[in-house]
């Protein structure tokens, strides 16, 4: 009897303790939300995260997220204030990241078992990315993980660069043969003649771009080199076929060829004249509106334009590689990309920050980040295959689709994760699915929904079902995935670098907008002369060393 009373007494005590803990937990959830700042160097937006993703964070973590993008001077200002943010996402593991580490601005994830206690999924599944980060600095400490991490090495990502063209217009002008990039210009002129205005009545152009993402060179110029097997690398291009580097201002460089291409677009009234002054949003709106009909980037072409309304009307953007194209794709990388997820040393909520990053690194978190809430936008069927719900499919077809149900509001586009950051690569395998990746375009369920006249016309013309199958059948190059990252520049070289790169960007834009061939040639010559005066040769010497290191890292991977 006494034993029974003791058991009952202990049980009552345990019930009271558990009840107390439960109430404490509920009280925390019902309390004031915690506001966290996420400083993202890849974001295109500043302000509070809104829409469906904001509701997910509030429901799951009781967190309101404030996004800070990397405008000019933001990093310096935040360093001076001794507060980079609660969560910090760097666009590179070199300059700013290493400066932050050296100045004690980032938290060591192993201190007080932060990763072990609050990041179990990262610790278990991202070991290679952890090893890479520890090797980035001489401290031997762990300050974060990269983005775009692959679950296993091998194969390559879905092609990021197609490029895409307005297929209905291309068909309407007779599917002209295009042997080189330059051969596109007369095709574009013919397309503009039959489609001079957009959906909203604006003048059409072949290309609309922006300068927000210029970096060390003009963004569209350097990125177009990817159609020829080059990877942007510092102040020039790395030829992934020959494993050699060329400076952007070298005689006969791919940069000069492509700079001339964009100038020729402008000279033929095929480049939106607002390109140099508008931001990402302005250019993206042009593609959504049908005001531009060729782009390198799938997210700004087919993913933006191919809405249900356009597809049903026989309008779409699909891949059209030119004859001499040698498209680059990127090998799946277990070490991740050059970006870095970190936690600011001044945060009052390190555990909460770690829990959020860790959740984003789970299948549920990644799928939510890519497609929205589970059950509302996507789910798994009885066989474990991934499916989009009707709402999820509508959001894929039209980013302006209203989010409805379960208390959600606003459009899909309004609520997308504004940090513009990833954890798992979208082409990595999703271990919670039945043998599928995170990328919906390759899901069997999605392919079964794609039946449009304009798509079938593209398929009949190419003989393939998807753009990746088409590009894989043609000349292409895979950039080898390694843990290599650019080294930090010295302070002296950094001063030179900033002067040289600013000159290249400013003068490249002037050359694009030149009103004659003579003016174009004079501007280019002046750009080279001025860059040389500032010390372009010192930048080249540094990059040649970096290229040798990259090649050594690639050779090591190939030898394994």
Task: Tell me about this structure.
- With 560 residues, the chain is of the alpha+beta class.
- The chain has 24 helices and 16 strands.
- A hairpin with a 3-residue loop joins strand 7 (230-232) and strand 8.
- The N and C termini lie far apart (70 Å).
- It folds into three domains: 1-31; 36-152 and 338-415, Periplasmic binding protein-like II (D-Maltodextrin-Binding Protein, domain 2, 3-Layer(aba) Sandwich), CATH 3.40.190.10; 161-330 and 450-559, 3-Layer(aba) Sandwich (D-Maltodextrin-Binding Protein, domain 2).
- The radius of gyration is 25 Å and the shape is globular.
- Residues 1-29 have low confidence and may be disordered.
Describe the structure using short key phrases.
D-Maltodextrin-Binding Protein, domain 2; disordered N terminus; three-stranded antiparallel sheet; globular; 24 helices; 3 domains; alpha+beta; six-stranded mixed sheet; 11% strand; 560 residues
Question: What is the strand tally?
Answer: 16
The CATH homology group name of the largest domain: Periplasmic binding protein-like II
Enumerate the strands of the largest sheet in spatial order, edge to edge or round the barrel: 2-3-1-4-13-5
Ends distance: 70 Å
